[in-house]
Every structure is written in structure tokens, then in C-alpha cells.
């Protein structure tokens, strides 16, 4: 059971946030923690965002100081001339001119900010987007939630499709008022949604529920898998969706700027006019603008009906987005639409490829053909940790039964690495897949020096886990302990495992002998005798 640092159950906390809390606690205790478990951007913030925000607050500061001085002057004059009604009227006029307050804003967002955002997004998508098509939300998570609420309230409660694995907040947002159906995408060659899988899911839901899904929510590029759709598949998906006119599409493009090939592809741009009006497009400042904590985001739709419903839901949840952040976000998006994005793409791609190379050397890539094509995420297969001893210190976070001291899931792998090695990685099961796969998501946004140190630590941890497995398997084969305590490089450890696994796979020795022309025990003894020539266990008379 996962618990919080104060000893309470963490069942009602987003698991990624719970892990972030534990990593913060360890940092406060003086530990070095490599935080690769959250989508934390590190590319410099677009300068125009703080500049615009500073201009807003400087202007407001000047007006409030003038207003305070005016109140002081008029207060003194009123004291001297208490019967002068003209003074009260003049004071009101001065304060009205200065506007020294932040009033309630437009629930949809200030018009000037919406106009600037519409200009930026029109340029990005090459679609005519107007101010009335833009709604400023309080972060991307708010946009996801209100969009799902709208989809499920348009008709009777139905099913919303999403790609699986999916971003952790999708399930909560969908199931508040509807049902979720995950379309498995890790079985596809590119780990992306396909038109074929989409249509199959639509028909499956119809056969199960007697009605078609009410919505499709997916992110492109994909979180957590770090993949993206290409033009050909997007066109096919658009064609499928055109045949189901009642399905509303929530298109989450939080990582739109992080396609590593630099393209600007989007279903929103490629869709026909009918499908475009059924799309709710979500964009945020979280990743490309490196402004996660400011919660700047927008929802865009060309449908007046959808916009009215989105505004109503947004008002009920948030009222309106902070006024001071709307224009900085709009100006930044406009600058981003015009700017050269290759420096940012190159910045993250170098980090991603560094991690991929190190994981390949360790032999923990999920499959060799997969490479991250977007975002800064890499998936690693750490199933070799399953069945090895669980960190005693990690019992602070995960309470295990007394008779179960071995790692059993990707979550336990992650907490084992966090507490014993200072590595924060994210279990892929938090996004839907089975815990027993042993997959984790690694965020590649630290400096290259930090990533190298983190990969060194992971390799050390992995070698330790594999040597534990080797000892156990060797004992099964020979009935004796190997008990090798020396440092072993990853290549040699892999060779040891391959030899032992080869023996384990063969149920009968005569099958092995027919296939390889020698006894498996001979192969093992020679291998370990060569590896440990000074070990008395491998006397020369034991080697045939």
C-alpha cells in the first residue's frame, strides 16, 4: 500500500504527484535526487512571457500608487472642506480614470488576449480562428476536465474513447460523468493510434452499449509514449471520424511544439469543415514555454454550441483564468508561432538520444525499433528488477507484507530506485498498462551531465539486480552459490544471463545436446571458469 510522508494512505492522490512529494521529502533530507519522473521542462522560458507580465503589473502598480496618493490628497481636502460635494465627485472621476483595481474578468478571457491568441493559433494551424473561438482555462488539466464534462452532458452519459496508455488525468476526467474505453496502441508498430484500431473500438463500443461513443480524447504527440502521428495516419483517422458525425474529438496538443522532426501536423489542420467543428483543441504553456507552474492554457473550438458549454463548465469550476497571465501566454504563443523551434528541439533530442543509447547498452529498451519521435520521454523495460529484494528504506512509502520482500511491480521498482539510488522514474502502470510489465517512463530534461550520472546509477542498480538473479539461477543449475561480489560490467552480466537462460529454457539436456552438440553444464562451467579463473570452485579438473 502506497502511503504519504505523514503516514496517510495515498490512494486518493494522483500517483505521480505522490512520488513527487516523496522525492521532495528526500531532497529536504539532503539526498541527491535525479527527478526524471515528471514532465518537467528545462528549456529557457520564452522571454516575452515574463516581460509582458511585468509590464502588466508595473502599469497596475503605477496606477494604484497614484490612486493612493489621490486618496490622501482628497482626504486632507475633505477634512478641510467637509461640505464641498464637488470634491467627492472629482475623487470618483480620478479613481475611475486610474482603474486601480483588478476587476472580475470576462469568463472566456479578455478580448485583447483572445484576439492575440487567435492570431497566433491561426498562424500555427493555418486555420481561421477568431477571438470567439478561444477560451482561456486554468491549466491544461482544467481544459481536459471541462471538455470531458461537456462531451458527456451533450447527450445521455456515454463512452469516451482514449488511447491506452493514457495521461493520468484522462481517466478521472472521463469517469466523473461517463465511461472510458482504452484503445491499446502499444501493439502498433509505431506506438500510435491507427485508423483501423479507432474504427474497431467504435464498433466494439456500439456492440457493447447499443450506441456509438460520444467522444474521443487523445494526445498527439503522445504522453507517456513519446510518439506522434504522421500525415498519412491522421488523414485516415479523419476519414474514420467523418463517418461518425456524433463523436466529439478532444485533441490534447500539450506537446505540439515538441515534434522532434520539426513538423506542424495536426488533426485540426487536416480535418474537413464538419470535423473541425467537432474538435475541442487544447493547448498549454506547460512544455514548450517552460511555464508549468503558471497554469496557462486555452481550449479552442469553432463550434458556438461547444464554446457556450465550455464557458458554462469553466465558470462553474474556475470562474475565469487569471487576467495577468492571459496576454503573456498569448504573446508567447504568437512569438513561438513565428520563431525557429529547432534550438529547442535539438536541446531535448540530444538528451533523449543519450538516454536511449545508455538504455540500449543495458539491454532494457522495450523493442529495438522504437525510438522517441516527440516529447522528451523514453520508455524503459526494467522487469529484471522484479523478483529481486525490495529496498528496506522504501518501506516508508510502500508497506509490504512481512513474507513479501521482493519487488513485484513497476511501482515498487520506481520506489526502490528512488530510495536506494535517488532516481525518480515514473511507473508506466500509472498510465494504464499492467504493473507486472516492469516498464517505466523516463523524462529526459535534466542536463546531459546529470542524465549521464543518472544512467550510471541505473546501470549499477540493474547490474546488482541481475547478479541477484544470476546467483539464484546458478544455484538452481548447480546446487551451489555463485556469490560473486566483484563489480561486473553490464555486457558481462548480460552474457551470464543469456547462458543461464539458455539452460533454463531447455527442459531436457538431450535436446540441448542435439541442438548445440555439447552438454549445457559444460558450457556453464567453462564460461564461469574463464570469468573467475582464481575461484576455487572452478578447478581445472571440473572443466572437460
Features:
12 strands, 10% strand, 49% helix, alpha/beta, 18 helices, Aspartate Aminotransferase, domain 2, 544 residues
List the helices and strands and how they pair.
Layout: H1 15-28, E1 34-35, H2 48-80, H3 85-98, H4 111-125, E2 134-138, H5 139-154, E3 159-164, H6 168-175, E4 179-184, H7 195-209, E5 215-219, H8 231-242, E6 248-252, H9 267-270, H10 273-276, E7 279-284, E8 296-300, H11 304-317, H12 323-338, H13 342-362, E9 377-381, H14 410-421, E10 423-424, E11 426-427, E12 439-443, H15 448-478, H16 490-505, H17 509-516, H18 520-531
Parallel strand pairs: 1-10, 3-4, 3-5, 5-6, 6-7
Antiparallel strand pairs: 2-8, 7-8, 9-12, 11-12
Helix pairs in contact: 2-3, 2-12, 4-12, 5-6, 5-11, 7-8, 13-15, 15-16, 16-18
Q: In what range is the share of β-strand residues? A: 5-15%
CATH architecture of the domain at 135-315: 3-Layer(aba) Sandwich
Instruction: State the helicity in percent bands.
Output: 40-55%
Helix/strand class: alpha/beta
Contiguous low-pLDDT stretches (5 residues minimum) are: 532-544
| Number of β-strand runs | 12
Largest pleated sheet: 7 strands, mixed
CATH class call of the domain at 135-315: Alpha Beta
Contiguous helical run count: 18
> Could you name the CATH homologous superfamily of the domain at 135-315?
Type I PLP-dependent aspartate aminotransferase-like (Major domain)
Distance between the termini: 51 Å
The gyration radius over C-alpha positions equals 29 Å
Shape field: globular
Enumerate the strands of the largest sheet in spatial order, edge to edge or round the barrel: 2-8-7-6-5-3-4
Amino acid at each position: 500500500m502506497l502511503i504519504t510522508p505523514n503516514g496517510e494512505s495515498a490512494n486518493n492522490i494522483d500517483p505521480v504527484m505522490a512520488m513527487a512529494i516523496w522525492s521532495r521529502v528526500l531532497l529536504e533530507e539532503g539526498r541527491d535526487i535525479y527527478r526524471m519522473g515528471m514532465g518537467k521542462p528545462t528549456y529557457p522560458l520564452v522571454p516575452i512571457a515574463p516581460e509582458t507580465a511585468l509590464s502588466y503589473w508595473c502599469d497596475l502598480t503605477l496606477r494604484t500608487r497614484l490612486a493612493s496618493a489621490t486618496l490622501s490628497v482628497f482626504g486632507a481636502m475633505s477634512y478641510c472642506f467637509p461640505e464641498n460635494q464637488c470634491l467627492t465627485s472629482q475623487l470618483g472621476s480620478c479613481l475611475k480614470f486610474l482603474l486601480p483595481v483588478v476587476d472580475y474578468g470576462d469568463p472566456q478571457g479578455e478580448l485583447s488576449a483572445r484576439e492575440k491568441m487567435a492570431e497566433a493559433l491561426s498562424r500555427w494551424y493555418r486555420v481561421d480562428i477568431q477571438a470567439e473561438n478561444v477560451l482561456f482555462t486554468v491549466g491544461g488539466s482544467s481544459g481536459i476536465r471541462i471538455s470531458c464534462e461537456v462531451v458527456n452532458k451533450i447527450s445521455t452519459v456515454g463512452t469516451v474513447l482514449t488511447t491506452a496508455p493514457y495521461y493520468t488525468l484522462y481517466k478521472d476526467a472521463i469517469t466523473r460523468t461517463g465511461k472510458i474505453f482504452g484503445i491499446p496502441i502499444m501493439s502498433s508498430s509505431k506506438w500510435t493510434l491507427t485508423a483501423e484500431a479507432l474504427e474497431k473500438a467504435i464498433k466494439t463500443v456500439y456492440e457493447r452499449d447499443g450506441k456509438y461513443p460520444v467522444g474521443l480524447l487523445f494526445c498527439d504527440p503522445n504522453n507517456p509514449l513519446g510518439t506522434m502521428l504522421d500525415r498519412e495516419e491522421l488523414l485516415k483517422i479523419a476519414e474514420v471520424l467523418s463517418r461518425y458525425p456524433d463523436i466529439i474529438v478532444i485533441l490534447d496538443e500539450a506537446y505540439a511544439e515538441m515534434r522532434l522532426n520539426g513538423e506542424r501536423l495536426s488533426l485540426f489542420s487536416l480535418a474537413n469543415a464538419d470535423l473541425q467543428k467537432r474538435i475541442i483543441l487544447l493547448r498549454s504553456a506547460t512544455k514548450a514555454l517552460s511555464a508549468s507552474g503558471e497554469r496557462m492554457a486555452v481550449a479552442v473550438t469553432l463550434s458556438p454550441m461547444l464554446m457556450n458549454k465550455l464557458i458554462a463548465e469553466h465558470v462553474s469550476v474556475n470562474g475565469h483564468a487569471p487576467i495577468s497571465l492571459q496576454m503573456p501566454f498569448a504573446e508567447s504563443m504568437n512569438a513561438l508561432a513565428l520563431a525557429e523551434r529547432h534550438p529547442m528541439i535539438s536541446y531535448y533530442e540530444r538528451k533523449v538520444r543519450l538516454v536511449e543509447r545508455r538504455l540500449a547498452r543495458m539491454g532494457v529498451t522495450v523493442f529495438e525499433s522504437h525510438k522517441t519521435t516527440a516529447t522528451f520521454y523514453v520508455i524503459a523495460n526494467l522487469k529484471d528488477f522484479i523478483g529481486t529484494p525490495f529496498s528496506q528504506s522504501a518501506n516508508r512509502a510502500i508497506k509490504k507484507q512481512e513474507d513479501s520482500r521482493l519487488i513485484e511491480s513497476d511501482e515498487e521498482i520506481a520506489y526502490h530506485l528512488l530510495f536506494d539510488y535517488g532516481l525518480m522514474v515514473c511507473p508506466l502502470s500509472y498510465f494504464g498498462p499492467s504493473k507486472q510489465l516492469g516498464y517505466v517512463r523516463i523524462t529526459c530534461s535534466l542536463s546531459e551531465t546529470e542524465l549521464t550520472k543518472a544512467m550510471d546509477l541505473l546501470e549499477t542498480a540493474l547490474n546488482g539486480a541481475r547478479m541477484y538473479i544470476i546467483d539464484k539461477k546458478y544455484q538452481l543449475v548447480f546446487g551451489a552459490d555463485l556469490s560473486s561480489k566483484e563489480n561486473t560490467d553490464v555486457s558481462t552480466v548480460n552474457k551470464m544471463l543469456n547462458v543461464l537462460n539458455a539452460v533454463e529454457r531447455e527442459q531436457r539436456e538431450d535436446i540441448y545436446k542435439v541442438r548445440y552438440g555439447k552438454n549445457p553444464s559444460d558450457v556453464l562451467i567453462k564460461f564461469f571458469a574463464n570469468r573467475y579463473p582464481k575461484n576455487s570452485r572452478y578447478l581445472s579438473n571440473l572443466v572437460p
